[in-house]
Amino acid sequence: MLSIVALLHGPDRPGLVATVAGWIFKRGGNILHADQHRDSEEQIFFQRIEWLHPVDDSEIPAVAEAFSKMATHELGMHCHVSVSSELGRVGVLVSKMPHCLRDLAFRFQQDELRGEIGCVISNHRDVEPFCRSLHLPFYYIPIDASLKADAENAQLKILKGHGVNLVVLARYMQVLSGEFIDSIEVPIINIHHSFLPAFAGGRPYHQAYARGVKIIGATAHYVTAELDQGPIIAQDVARVSHRHSVEDLIRKGRDLEELVLAQAVRWHLEHRVLVYGNKTVVFD
Amino acid sequence: MLSIVALLHGPDRPGLVATVAGWIFKRGGNILHADQHRDSEEQIFFQRIEWLHPVDDSEIPAVAEAFSKMATHELGMHCHVSVSSELGRVGVLVSKMPHCLRDLAFRFQQDELRGEIGCVISNHRDVEPFCRSLHLPFYYIPIDASLKADAENAQLKILKGHGVNLVVLARYMQVLSGEFIDSIEVPIINIHHSFLPAFAGGRPYHQAYARGVKIIGATAHYVTAELDQGPIIAQDVARVSHRHSVEDLIRKGRDLEELVLAQAVRWHLEHRVLVYGNKTVVFD
Amino acid sequence: MLSIVALLHGPDRPGLVATVAGWIFKRGGNILHADQHRDSEEQIFFQRIEWLHPVDDSEIPAVAEAFSKMATHELGMHCHVSVSSELGRVGVLVSKMPHCLRDLAFRFQQDELRGEIGCVISNHRDVEPFCRSLHLPFYYIPIDASLKADAENAQLKILKGHGVNLVVLARYMQVLSGEFIDSIEVPIINIHHSFLPAFAGGRPYHQAYARGVKIIGATAHYVTAELDQGPIIAQDVARVSHRHSVEDLIRKGRDLEELVLAQAVRWHLEHRVLVYGNKTVVFD
Amino acid sequence: MLSIVALLHGPDRPGLVATVAGWIFKRGGNILHADQHRDSEEQIFFQRIEWLHPVDDSEIPAVAEAFSKMATHELGMHCHVSVSSELGRVGVLVSKMPHCLRDLAFRFQQDELRGEIGCVISNHRDVEPFCRSLHLPFYYIPIDASLKADAENAQLKILKGHGVNLVVLARYMQVLSGEFIDSIEVPIINIHHSFLPAFAGGRPYHQAYARGVKIIGATAHYVTAELDQGPIIAQDVARVSHRHSVEDLIRKGRDLEELVLAQAVRWHLEHRVLVYGNKTVVFD
Fold it and tell me: Which is the catalytic residue, given D228, D236, D255, D284?
């Protein structure tokens, strides 16, 4: 049976929970999960609500649409509604390092992540054999500084051609242009190999080593036009000491990067992440 | 303005969220927080809901009472309702080690914990000067194996005389009898100095050292008649290595014990903990 | 250039560090790492020392042998010496779940682990395609309760035939007999999917769920005749809450199991683990 | 019996371990702990070595002195030698928030920290009653921007008058001038309430809240002329979510600050911290 998930946010006011729950109940729906949050400083109401609706699967999209209208027009909420039959279709951009791609691929295989990898694009050929072995469509698009716009256009065309609804930068070492970000029209999740905002930019493990920190981290965030400044979805850390070389930091960091990126992608695909301002609300 | 907090649980069925939220909304209440959980295996519904009600403070208890009736009779829920004016009044039982008592006392002082310590009872005199310095009523009740029942009766009388609504065992090294637990009529929270269920019983740090574990822990749980088997509220852990002696484990453990006990007491006093079966739902 | 690693332990006495370091220095060796530990309760001295020796690679084994004799006869130490050219050759036993095997395989591929997987034996055919794709020798040995001894003999023959110097149980769901453990003559590392000693035995995630713990764990340990009682090498934990089903615990546990097992295998292969009594000293 | 602790560092070369251990052994000393580290990038050798020497307590300082000469002149090492009879004597600077001071005071009381608090100086009167209750010398030195130099001179005089060998900034909200740092002649440890280098400068919890991070931290570091840029000694972190207000971050941060500062002070007082460049080696 299909379930519907709605993500709402907007100005708080009395009766929001009652109206939403009442709308569903009157139509015979059964709420599976409902999670609210109020930002008491900014008076914003956030909700994730998931329910079963006693109609034929074919009628579910119309119910979702009707809910969305009610939430938008009656309650003045931003509303994103999705149906459990809509699966993630992820376009992965990657450079040389395969670990995050490989980890995501296996998590899709064992149904930890809902959906599939639609295509993989890389500016190197390193991960091609791996993609071939899993029958993942692979595209090699080299990046030449002078022709970056052309390369990005090619990427856009491939991603749209595969109908992806999420782009994941799985250790993709190129900066995306503002034009790309504007044109892609689906969210982009990046894994940054540091505990942002510490060590934004290039070579963060080398920066961390030079600074002598005792803990390193990884950060998954939505990509915005400002480099490494987008809304943070997930972070994790690991302890290091003077005994660890830069290579050790990189090795330990790989495990962190996989875990944090997988968590962010999972939350996104399960419609658990709401963005507002430059922050996220994650209904875990 | 007073807020009301209700903790509900009972058999799941459609319309629970709508009915509860609708009841509040119709009476002009404004929901501050609402958090639900469904145990999909056992089909049990859990909810913590906190709201403001537009009536005089003097009328709030009647509103709480009316809500409780509705939830119990109409919805078939177990219901615990409390009003934000009701503060914690904690009776602390402690033996020789002062750290948990001291930590709790300071957290009450700086309003991290809502309420106050009503009295302290110990089978030793070690913490008496500390209690005196903070003007906490202190009672010395030695425990003699042959007269344990008498001692427990004295403890019960003191705790009830001070009107405590929670008993905290802050490293109290005596086992409470089933009679005491039955008679006290308020919840009892204990801090056990291990990661339960590992190392239940006595001298857990020595047990952990002998077993050569690489991580130690602390567990706060409600006390039931079965030693160290009650519902777990909070746990935390710390890494140890072969370099750490039993004394190091004890030292590191003290920090864990304070943090875990304080967290459990805070959650309890904020009405965030629901017990069912031998488990807890914590609406953090 | 080859390095030599010695692991020593025995009764403590003055001059051990000086004698060991002096022996190496007099012969022109250059110590890369030296790490000592004294168990002050039991008066045992532990040391891991790694050094470069200015002789031809072909003469290194003789140097290692000479050191071992000195440590054993002059210092009365247990001594295990290895040369950096000796690589791990791991026999993996696995049942249906592939994640730990897959994780180990990739870590060997990217040289995080020194050596290689010599062979994989399973009582199911699930991981066979994966092994074939990586050209890992795969053996299917079904386990029939009445013929377990025969199956174990077949396993022993294969493992010895491949010259493995370590056996890893990568989620192998059969209990090894005492005879197997005695006969294999190389260490065996198991990953247990709980925070030992909590939840030893079968279905630990179900046990953890039933007990309502707030933290789950995984434990890598050397296998001894007593089930789940061998010396612990590595442990790690993850937080869970009432929101997590048994399936969530299993999913979160997979990540823990991979990380903890990989760490234990890495430490073992880098000769960082000393066993004494039922405990380990890990020179990280 | 007194023990001697030496902290050495300098250019690596063969024979350092053998020479140091040999020197001690020839004089009848018994090494309790020896820990080495080689920075293989910069070819620097680091060692912490602690030993018992079979002479009268009165002769121990001469032994320490002789060792120091050997290490400096024969081995070309920087050498800091101390005797276990020398205890920490800490001058604490604090502003309004008492928690770190209180925590340090109790850790000294229960001998977790070796030594004592020599005096407390504050630019506010908030912690005065607490200091009086523990008989800690308290000095109120208000800071007026235009007379900051005078205030710092008064502070210096008090700290030197009490013979402190360590200054701890226990949530001291004033920036120390370069002149103060140059003149004090003992190390200064600060607790910064963020995970440096993220959120250096003022109001880090507000910065963290605004950035929407999912983990907050605390950092203990030695103070240098550059604000929040000194060598990091210890760091720790805690998870936060969208549910946590700035006030929650501050509350959770207090626990982190206490633990991290206490750990850094303990390591420093046990002579476990070596500074080189802008980093630390911590022999834990």
Answer: D228
CATH number at residue B33: 3.30.70.260
The answer to whether the CB atoms of C215 and B234 lie below 8 A apart is no
Question: Could you give the strand order of the β-sheet that contains D88-94, starting from the edge strand earlier in sequence?
Answer: D138-140, D115-122, D88-94, D166-169, D188-192, D215-222, D232-239
Instruction: Give A131: exposed, middle or buried? Use CB within 10 Å, 0-12, 13-18, 19+.
Output: buried
Q: How far is CA A152 from CA A117, B225, C127, in A?
A: 19, 67, 39
Determine the pLDDT at residue A2.
87
Tens digits of residue pLDDT in D178-235: 999 999 999 999 999 999 999 998 999 999 999 999 999 999 999 999 999 999 999 9
Catalytic residue among C228, C236, C255, C284: C228
Q: Are D96 and D62 members of one domain?
A: no
Query: Total structural domains in chain A?
Result: 2
pLDDT on residue C42: 87
Q: What is the mean pLDDT of residues B91-117?
A: 96
Name the nearest CA neighbour of A39 among A232, A272, A281. Answer: A281
Q: Which of A12, A13, A17 should we substitute to test contact with B (largest number of B Cβ atoms within 10 Å)?
A: A17
Asked if D75 and D19 count as a contact pair (C-beta separation under 8 A), the reply is yes
Compare all CA atoms of chain B with the CA of C242 and give the residue at the minimum distance: B281
Structural domain including D151 reads 88-282
Specify whether the CB–CB gap between B8 and B39 falls below 8 A: no
Q: Spell out the residues 6+ positions from residue A224 whose beta carbon is closer than 8 angstroms to its own.
A: A181, A230, A231, A278
End residue of a domain, out of D21, D48, D83: D83
- How far is CA D256 from its chain centroid? 16
Model confidence at B145, pLDDT cuts 50, 70, 90, reads confident
Residues 6 or more apart from C242 whose CB is under 8 A from it? Answer: B37, B39, B46, B279, B280, B281, B282, C212
CB within 8 Å: C21 and D18: yes
Element holding B70 (H helix, E strand):
none
* Alpha carbons A71 and A77: distance in angstroms, whole number: 6
ipTM: 0.94
Tokens of A105: 């691929």
Task: Show which of B83, B110, B140 is a domain's final residue.
Answer: B83
Among all residues of chain D, which has the CA nearest to that of A228? D211
Binary contact (D18, C25; C-beta < 8 A): yes
What tens digit of pLDDT does each residue of A181-237 get? 999 999 999 999 999 999 998 999 999 999 999 999 999 999 999 999 999 999 999
- Whether D284 is a known active-site residue: answer no
Which pTM does this prediction carry?
0.96
